[in-house]
Design goal:
Length: 373
């Protein structure tokens, strides 16, 4: 498909690739001109050369012959590519320096003597799986992103490795998810997410969506900002009876986790009107790991009253769906016992906001027939 470009430019190209073979020279991505005199010149080419990542940029006739005769190409032997494995690759060229990243980590950097930008015409075409000087790529390509300016590369490489782009971004000129299924039409989300532009691949058929999550984002574990939890145990329960709620783990990309092993803990604090104590639940002791990214937390409190429930991931508080650090739940009295009831006689405490205050140490509690337990 045609790519929105024009004139001399910096260039950043990123993609997920899963090659079936890495020996020899195989083209992965390239930008081709459509003019007669330059039809065979790739403005950019990304290839695999004997198990290493290779990139070349066409910089035009103004560059001295010592800079590879208008074409700056580097094969990075430090940027290893492995067969039958999903890897995220990113190559950037800012006119002077070519930088390589594999799986979010910078693997190589090459600086040229003179500055020269990539020569892009108004109409260049993206070719996936080939370039002019390599064999056809054998494997899968997913989530291709292209920028016309180099900016904060370490952060960009890390974020694209963790999660594919889900919307427009500064200086983004191409964003193909390539997960539409079978056909020749791909959606370009670089401009508008709700109304993506259709890109036509004249000689290719898109395969089914790549199952990349298992090898990437999911392996990073659950994320504090996407974790969800809910259940009746966070609303109310009975004293002496088990209270239960569930925790759903999602990765940083917002994809539901398909395995367990996350570091969740729960703290139940209360009752708020007495000397509040902290009751902690951990995985294996109060929290059941279901092995599919979901967890069941269960606890029993013997004293009625209000409690605060905190959910934590690796020691950090996970906010509830209201954006609050704690959820207030009420434990109803189960069986009233005259010898275990109490009455507090401080009138100022009747309107106490127990979520933000506590009457612990302020109450003159005494047993009375007027209270509940």
């Amino acid at each position: 498909p045609y790519v929105r470009t024009g004139g001399a430019s910096e260039l950043v190209v990123a993609a997920w690739i899963r090659p079936e073979k890495t020996e020899g020279r195989m083209g992965v991505l390239s930008l081709m001109g459509d003019s007669m005199e330059l039809a065979e010149v790739a403005r950019f080419g990304l290839s695999i050369v004997d198990g290493s990542l290779s990139a070349g940029f066409y910089t035009g006739p103004e560059v001295a012959a010592c800079d590879s005769s208008y074409y700056r190409e580097v094969t990075s032997w430090k940027s290893a590519i492995v067969e039958d494995q999903w890897q995220h690759v990113l190559v950037a060229y800012d006119g002077r320096t070519m930088t390589f990243f594999v799986d979010g980590r910078m693997t190589d950097e090459v600086e040229f003597e003179k500055r020269a930008y990539v020569e892009l015409s108004d109409n260049v075409q993206l070719v996936i799986g080939a370039d002019t000087s390599a064999s056809m790529f054998e494997g899968q390509v997913y989530s291709v992103a292209m920028y016309n300016k180099v900016s904060d590369l370490p952060q960009l490489a890390q974020s694209l490795w963790e999660c594919p782009l889900d919307g427009p971004d500064d200086n983004l000129i191409l964003n193909l998810a390539l997960n539409e299924g079978v056909g020749i039409m791909a959606k370009d989300y670089s401009v508008n997410v709700a109304h993506p532009k259709l890109r036509v691949f004249g000689d290719a058929q898109l395969s089914l969506a790549a199952d990349w999550v298992d090898a990437t984002c999911d392996s990073l574990g659950a994320h504090i900002e996407t974790t969800e939890y809910a259940g009746q145990g966070l609303v109310e329960g009975l004293a002496g009876q088990c209270m239960v709620f569930s925790i759903q783990a999602y990765d940083k990309c917002g994809t539901k986790r398909i395995s367990g092993g996350d570091g969740y803990t729960v703290e139940v604090v209360g009752p708020l009107h007495l000397h509040a104590e902290i009751y902690e639940l951990t995985v294996g002791d109060g929290i059941e790991d279901m092995g599919d990214g979901s967890y069941l937390a269960h606890f029993t409190r013997d004293i009625s009253g209000y409690y605060l429930v905190y959910v934590k991931l690796n020691g950090e508080i996970v906010e509830n769906d209201m954006g609050e650090e704690a959820t207030k739940t009420y434990v109803h009295p189960y069986v009233t016992d005259a010898m275990m009831t109490y009455l507090y006689d401080e009138a100022d405490l009747l309107g106490l906001d127990e979520v933000h205050e506590s009457c612990a140490d302020a109450c003159d509690c005494s047993r009375s027939l007027s209270g509940w337990h």
